[in-house]
Amino acid sequence: MVKLESLREKNLRDEEMTVDKSLEELPENLRPIKPAQWREACQWIKLRWGRIGWDDDVMLFNDAQFWCEDELWGGIQSLFDKGGEFPPTFAELSKAVMEYRKNHLVHTLAELNRELPAPKGSLDDYLEQIGAESFAHACYLSVQERAKAGKLEKSEDPEAYNGWTDNWSDAKATYMVGLQKRVSNIDQITESL
Predict the structure, then answer these.
(1) 127 and 79 in one domain?
(2) Residues near 34 by beta carbon (within 8 Å), at least 6 away in sequence
(3) Which of 93, 113, 157, 182 is deepest in the core (most CB within 10 A)?
(4) Domain boundary among 63, 84, 113
């Protein structure tokens, strides 16, 4: 029973760690490290501890090349925070990187996999969605809804436009005329650009 439960937990963790994106779509800090980043990390370890716990940086890069920048630096930081007197060995660094991956990076990957909300549309998209031909028409429709619900604003006349029951084709000649003229002027200016 325990082994089966552990296997289920491992499969869930593996699913959480999977990202449905190509390497190019990932942020730079989640892509595999480059040799220059590995050399920088080794230099950082040398600066903090005075030396590194291994002899061949280049050879060990073959084992570290699939780590991403976040987990490499997360592992190094956790080792540094422990306050060890001696520099970490490569095995200790690998263990710290895997711990970081398991405990921290999984949340970042889950965020990447999360569905993003649909992008907000433009005013034209909104007007099309509600069936309005202009911003003034959308405002008129909104006032009509408030009038039907009995929630007109103090500045809105309940008797105007036959109790707000007139069709837009009848009301548009006099409703928000000043706004309609300014919007049409802005449209002309933007079209000329």
Answers:
(1) no
(2) none
(3) 93
(4) 113
9: amino acid identity, one letter: E
Contact 51, 88 (CB under 8 A): no
Domain that holds residue 73: 2-113
pLDDT tens-digit profile, the chain (193 residues): 344 444 445 444 444 445 556 777 777 777 888 999 988 988 888 888 888 777 666 778 888 888 989 899 999 999 989 888 888 888 999 999 999 888 887 777 677 666 656 667 778 888 888 999 888 899 999 999 999 999 988 888 888 888 889 989 888 888 887 665 555 555 565 565 5
Residue 183 CB partners (closer than 8 Å, separation 6+):
134, 135, 136
Total domain count for the chain? 2
* Same domain as 159, residue 186: yes
CA–CA separation, 87 and 70 (whole Å): 20
3 state SS of 86: coil
Three-state DSSP at 135 gives helix
SS3 for 166? coil
